């Protein structure tokens, strides 16, 4: 028989290990947390996953690494700190600012490939802004970059469109690019209505859809990316 210990008995509920376990259980189940604590924890998890995927994509994703290389060659290098994970409204998965920043909307991605397509999309906008001095308030300029970004990024993959409920077996890619470009241009503060957005997309469609810079220089047409005539 062991001699009695002189150390006082420890109440399990007072041990640090137990409190850590209880905290983890609360976070996992949501029990015992206030709505604010639960929301903060969910956002922290989304942010951590977004940052992890971002780091992996910047290092290993072929289209992302390719675009970063060509931005650097064009004199517009994009440091990782300029690509941030943040909270957005439910209508978008990413955004680009002409100052040189990209936002990835944490929690809005169905997977890492979805994030890859979004990041590539925004890097194409950044490339256009750097290379061609796009005026984002000019609807034709905006339309041209949206056509290119939607076409070249993977945003209009067949299965992605199926997931959006836009199944089409006849020129699916072109239909997706056109539809998404019109939606984006419609949000431009200088766009008066959907008819103006559709007209801008139609006016630059042929030259911009066929312009694959920097992915395939051999397919570049002789028509400049951005038409200056308003």
From TrEMBL:
The role this protein plays is: Has a dual role in the assembly of mitochondrial ATPase.
* GO CC, one annotated term: mitochondrial inner membrane
What subcellular locations does the record give? Mitochondrion inner membrane
Key words, A-Z = Hydrolase, Membrane, Metal-binding, Metalloprotease, Mitochondrion, Mitochondrion inner membrane, Protease
Q: Does the keyword 4Fe-4S apply?
A: no
Species lineage = Eukaryota, Fungi, Dikarya, Basidiomycota, Agaricomycotina
| EC supergroup of this enzyme | hydrolase
What name does UniProt use for this protein?
A: Mitochondrial inner membrane protease ATP23
Question: InterPro entries this protein is in?
Answer: Peptidase_M76_ATP23
Task: State which Enzyme Commission number(s) the record gives.
Answer: 3.4.24.-
Question: What membrane topology term does the record carry?
Answer: Peripheral membrane protein
Q: Which organism is it from?
A: Pisolithus microcarpus 441
What does the entry give for GO biological process? Answer: mitochondrial protein processing; mitochondrial proton-transporting ATP synthase complex assembly
Q: Which domain of life is it from?
A: Eukaryota
Q: Name one GO molecular function term.
A: metalloendopeptidase activity
A Pfam family the protein falls into = Peptidase_M76
Q: Does the keyword GTP-binding apply?
A: no
Similarity comment: Belongs to the peptidase M76 family.
This protein's major location comes to: mitochondrion
